[in-house]
């Protein structure tokens, strides 16, 4: 058993953990990052499937993600714009594909007007919501007790408008049914992106990609940390007291002053805490969960949809694949589509055999792009729920009432233990941008605490009353 001593132990080599470790090391502290997987990146993973490069996890960069953009510039990672020339495709409740341009899909005048009204209403509520403290909204308790779907249905009797507004939060972001999370959770999701309108605008939120894949961010950060990153070391135990921690894997133990648990909340209880975490922390973790999504990659000899005048952007709440985009890699002549199947549709899909699942997904893509979509030369499904060290999609969200009950508590340390990931971000919630912001925040908190402790100790030593020389006992 190897024994190490460090100022800080970081559990998890995703963007949050590696950012925190980089900041702490730059400030002069000793660190070690312990990662259960045999790779760095967490929910960022770029891989080759049958000779084709795919980004199996997160991949997009939007203009408001300034922490990520700053990191890309620091690491010297170039970006390129997602292909978006041409018309988008929407499949309505009747199953007919319709082409359009702009953000609002082709529907009746009444439905289009209702969509615009609901978007404006949500933008107004989002503007009142602080993504760092949504539980402080004047109507937070009320908004956290009603599901997003129930609120939408109370606001509108236009079912097509309701289904499409729900899609942008439920299917596309939280990857849970809209009846399973609160209006307040939906407002947080939109506030973290700046507005609900940003979520509707695919050209904004899915603006650019990194040449060679977004996993290069954690890969470059890990390179800078060198041997301070240890792979294949799932943390089994965190023994903690006010004075510090001892973190143990199967092969090593680390004694440290602080530990950052930088993994999704659903994995917190994979670690044995000695003593156990406070009862409210344990309760908190039982009210957060990840969603479910299958990310589908289909590559063709050419991007045939472009020849047909399509941008590749397609969506429908009535289709198995609720959204899809041109995901062709920089500099390639081949064309790649990426699509997503989430929540209850994913439940049903995972009951099928691999052959039947592929057929159902390609049939759905063909509903958007025509029969040429049925014959990819490379095909792959990213199923993050099957990943041992992820077990779900995108981000953790609370059940009804959980955000107001536990939201503030999730940000508080437990003695020398701090928790953080993109799941706990304000701006950039569930994105790499948010992961970087949280990593910076956690590093800053530890540095501030160390500075404050040093100041207190220095003050205490200078205030000590000296013993008078020659005094007798």
Automatic annotation (TrEMBL):
Keyword Metal-binding: no
Xref: SUPFAM superfamilies: FAD-linked reductases, C-terminal domain, FAD/NAD(P)-binding domain
Domain Amine oxidase: 16-447
Cofactor section: FAD
Chain segments annotated as coiled-coil in the UniProt record: none
This protein's UniProt keywords: Oxidoreductase
GO terms assigned for molecular function: putrescine oxidase activity
EC identifiers of the protein: 1.4.3.10
Chain positions recorded as FAD binding sites: 16, 35-36, 235
Biased segments, Low complexity type: 454-465
Annotated PANTHER family: AMINE OXIDASE, AMINE OXIDASE [FLAVIN-CONTAINING] B
This protein's name: Putrescine oxidase
């Amino acid at each position: 058993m190897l024994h190490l001593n460090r100022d800080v132990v970081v559990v998890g080599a995703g963007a949050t953990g590696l950012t925190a470790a980089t900041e702490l090391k730059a400030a002069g502290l000793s660190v070690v990052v312990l990662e259960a997987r045999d790779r760095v990146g967490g929910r960022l993973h770029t891989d080759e499937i049958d000779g084709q490069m795919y980004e199996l996890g997160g991949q997009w960069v939007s203009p408001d993600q300034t922490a990520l953009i700053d990191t890309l510039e620091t690491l010297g990672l170039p970006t390129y714009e997602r292909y978006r020339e041409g018309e988008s495709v929407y499949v309505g409740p009747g199953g007919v594909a319709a082409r359009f341009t702009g953000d609002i899909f082709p529907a009746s005048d009444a439905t289009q007007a209702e969509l615009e009204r609901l978007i404006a209403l949500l933008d107004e509520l989002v503007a009142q919501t602080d993504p760092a403290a949504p539980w402080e909204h004047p109507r937070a308790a009320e908004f956290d007790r009603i599901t997003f779907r129930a609120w939408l249905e109370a606001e509108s009797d236009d079912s097509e408008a309701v289904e499409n507004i729900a899609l942008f939060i439920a299917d596309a972001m939280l990857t849970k049914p809209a009846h399973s999370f609160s209006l307040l959770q939906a407002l947080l999701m939109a506030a973290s992106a700046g507005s609900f309108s940003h979520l509707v605008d695919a050209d904004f939120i899915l603006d650019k990609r990194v040449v060679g894949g977004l996993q290069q961010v954690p890969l470059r950060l890990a390179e800078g940390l060198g041997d301070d990153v240890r792979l294949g070391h799932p943390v089994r135990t965190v023994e903690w007291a006010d004075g510090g921690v001892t973190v143990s894997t199967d092969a090593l133990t680390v004694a440290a002053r602080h530990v950052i648990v930088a993994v999704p909340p659903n994995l917190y209880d994979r670690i044995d805490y000695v003593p156990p975490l406070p009862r409210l922390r344990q309760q908190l973790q039982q009210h957060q969960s990840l969603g479910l999504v299958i990310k589908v990659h289909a590559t063709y000899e050419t991007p045939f949809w472009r020849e047909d005048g399509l941008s590749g952007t397609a969506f429908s709440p009535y289709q198995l694949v609720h959204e899809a985009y041109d995901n062709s890699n920089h500099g390639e002549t081949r064309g790649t589509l990426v699509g997503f199947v989430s929540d209850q549709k994913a439940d049903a899909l995972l009951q099928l055999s691999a052959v039947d699942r592929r057929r159902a997904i390609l049939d759905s893509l063909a509903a958007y792009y025509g029969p040429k979509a049925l014959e990819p030369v490379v095909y792959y499904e990213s199923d993050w729920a099957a990943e041992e060290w992820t077990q779900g999609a995108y981000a953790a969200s609370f059940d009804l009432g959980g955000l107001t009950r536990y939201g503030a508590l999730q940000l508080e340390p437990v003695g020398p233990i701090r928790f953080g990931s993109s799941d706990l971000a304000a701006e950039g919630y569930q994105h790499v941008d948010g992961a970087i912001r949280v990593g910076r925040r956690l590093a800053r908190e530890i540095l501030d605490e160390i500075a404050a402790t040093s100041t207190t100790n220095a003050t205490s030593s200078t205030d000590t009353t000296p013993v008078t020389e020659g005094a007798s006992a």
